[in-house]
Structures are given as C-alpha cells and as structure tokens.
Specification:
With 303 residues, the chain is α/β, with parallel strands linked by helices. The chain folds into 2 domains: 3-63, Ribosomal Protein L15, Chain: K, domain 2, CATH 3.100.10.20; 87-300, Up-down Bundle (Four Helix Bundle (Hemerythrin (Met), subunit A)), CATH 1.20.120. It is built from 11 helices and 10 strands. It has helices at residues 52-60, 87-95, 99-123, 129-136, 146-159, 172-193, 212-217, 222-236, 242-249, 265-282, 295-300, and strands at 3-7, 12-17, 20-25, 28-34, 38-43, 49-50, 65-68, 74-78, 255-258, 261-264. The strands form 3 sheets. A 4-stranded mixed β-sheet has the order 1-5-7-8. α3 runs parallel beside α8 (222-236). It is globular.
C-alpha cells in the first residue's frame, strides 16, 4: 500500500527503527509505519528533527522528503541521487534529446491536460466543448500557447468567476497548493525511479526550478486535484485540515484508465516517466498518458 506521511505536529523527531518509520515527541512514541509502504514524506511542522539513518533509508527507497511553508507550497525537496539501474545512460539520453522530440512530448502532455480539464468541467455539468476543440489545435511545443488559453476558459467555470490562481491566497488556493505538493512529490519520485533528472524539463525551464520535469509530467493530473479541491472547499470552506489532507493524499490511489486497463495514479506517474525515459533512449516518442476517469468518479473526488 502506497502511503504519504504528513508531519503537522511541532517538535516531533523522525527516525528509523528496524524497518519502520518512527515518530516520537518528548521521548514518547506517537506513531510508526513500515518504511516499504511510504512513497513521500511531507513536513509542515516547526521544530521537527530527522535522523540521518532515516534519510538514508528513505533515499534507498526513492522516497522524497518535502519541507513546506505555511501556504503548503514546497520550500525544499530531498530526493535520492540514484534511482535506476540504467540511470547514467538514460540521463545522457535525456540531456541529448532532440528538440523536435521534446516539443512533441510537450504537445502530448498539454493535450492530455486539456482533455482532463474538459472531462472535469463535464463532470460538473459546465460547458466543456470549447476545451475539446482547443485540445485538437495544440501544435508541436504548444507554440500558440493553447494551454494558457484553456486555463483562462477553465478556471472561472471550475472555481467561479472571481477565482484567481494565487499561491499565497488563503482561499481554495491553499487546498490546491497542498494537492499540487502531493502530486509534485509523487511525480518527482516517479522521475527519479525512471532514471531521469527532475531538473531537466520539457517546457518548464526556470533556472531556479529544480523540479521542472516534475512540473511538466504532473500537468495532466492537476485537474483531478482541482475536482477534489472544489468539492472540499464547497463542503468545508478553504481550511486545509486533516480531512482535506487525507482526501487529497488518497488521490494517489485513484484508478485511472491507461492502456487496456486501469492503474493507480502513483503507478500511472511512474509509467509516464518510464515511457519518457525510453523515448529519450529510442529517439521515438511513446508516452503512457492516462485518460480521464468517468464523470461520476470525477464529480465524487473529495467527497
């Protein structure tokens, strides 16, 4: 079972003990979990200490450790430097990938994202046909910036006319921040496990962004977080409480249509990253991108 550990209590100490992730406070144990079940650790609290042995064990299992600010955005992410048996060759192929292949990869990612946005709007009975049309007009590298056009259409219908995506806003944006942090950590883990480097992106290329490729590959999955965030905000308001976090963390286990069957989101991210790595090596693009779940599933996220 894939689990995300979220540390929200101040003054905890995190350590390893005989294959377990152990949490203590003031010398007393308050929780433990098998290390092999953990895929991400997120730390929000103040005064948390972490043992070196635990970090080494998490690194061996390709588990990122995310340190967040008060707005639930990641401020630091620790990832292992070794995650795949063919990592050296695959990273060289990633760095030497030809521009046409990179642009085609970004085109497919954008199309997948817009189709997921269209499905999300349809699930909430909002007009979605314009997004379906936009997805058909994406060109190599998205030179016409259809992704941004789709976003301008999508957000008012998904979150309301007054909504603005602002990472520092305390409204539903705070819920989105947390959901995207979970998604970004899962994408980072998938990328390292596939032998790729998360800094070298397809489209995102900010010099200060160490996780550009994670930000690229998580794009098609973002609307799933949006659906859950909308439902959670409608029911409980904008606060990011324990219920909200649990609901968003559970998204990594959501079954998504992929290929001839269905696979959990965490596995879908791994398959996407692996397919990209293989595409870099082969020089021929074949991306394993998920299809949108049915409308009933999308409408039920976060409830």
């Amino acid at each position: 079972m894939d689990r995300i550990v979220d540390i929200t209590t101040d003054g905890c100490h995190l350590s390893r003990e005989r294959g377990f992730f152990k949490v203590t406070k003031e010398g007393a144990e308050v929780g433990r979990l098998p290390l092999d079940e953990i895929i991400t650790v997120i730390i929000h609290a103040h005064g948390v200490t972490v043992s070196g042995n635990l970090l080494a064990e998490l690194g061996e299992r390709v588990v990122p450790v995310v340190f967040c600010a008060s707005n639930h955005m990641p401020r630091s992410v620790l990832i292992p430097i070794e995650g795949h048996h063919a990592q050296g060759g695959r990273m060289r192929a990633q760095l030497q990938a030809k521009t046409p292949l990179i642009k085609q990869a970004w085109k497919e990612v954008v199309i997948s994202k817009i189709r997921m946005q269209a499905a999300a709007l349809e699930a909430f009975t909002a007009p979605h046909a314009p997004l379906t049309m936009m997805a058909r007009s994406v060109t190599s590298g998205d030179g016409n910036n259809v992704e941004a056009q789709a976003a301008r259409y999508y957000w008012p219908l998904m979150m309301g006319n007054d909504f603005r995506r602002d990472r520092n806003s305390p409204d539903v944006n705070a819920i989105l921040n947390y959901g995207y942090t979970v998604l970004r950590a899962a994408a980072s883990r998938a990328i390292v496990a596939a032998g790729l480097h998360p800094t070298v992106g397809l489209h995102h290329s900010n010099r200060s962004n160490a996780f550009a490729l994670a930000d690229d590959l998580m794009e098609p999955f973002r609307p799933l977080v949006d659906c859950a965030a909308r439902a959670l905000a409608d029911r409980n308001g904008p606060q990011v409480n324990t219920e909200v976090k649990h609901s968003l963390v559970r998204l990594i286990a959501l079954d998504l249509p992929l290929g001839d069957g269905k696979t959990p989101m965490s596995v879908a991210l791994t398959k996407l990253a692996t397919s990209l790595g293989q595409s870099f090596e082969n020089g021929k693009l074949t991306l394993a991108l998920p299809r949108p779940p049915d409308a009933l599933t999308l409408a039920g996220l976060g409830t």
